[in-house]
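Morning run. Coffee first, then this:
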Amino acid sequence: MITGSARAQQRVATFAIDAEIRFAGPAERAAFADDLTAAVTELVGRHHSEKGRKHRLVVAVHPALDSAAPPPRTEPAAERDGGGV
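And here it is:
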């Protein structure tokens, strides 16, 4: 998209939201997912049109890495597996 928009000398119409949330437990995470699904479904239904340009909406919730924690240790496969092929 970026390459194509540069060739066409047009900006790519994008929008992003970035947030961090903590859940007390799995039940709260599930309730959040249910609420988010309902909200997105309602918005898509209200704003969708068969005319116009299609846009892709992606929403992801995943565990965040702790930026203060050291990165996980990685070793070459040969060292990790005892050097065999």
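The mean pLDDT is 84. Good start to the day.
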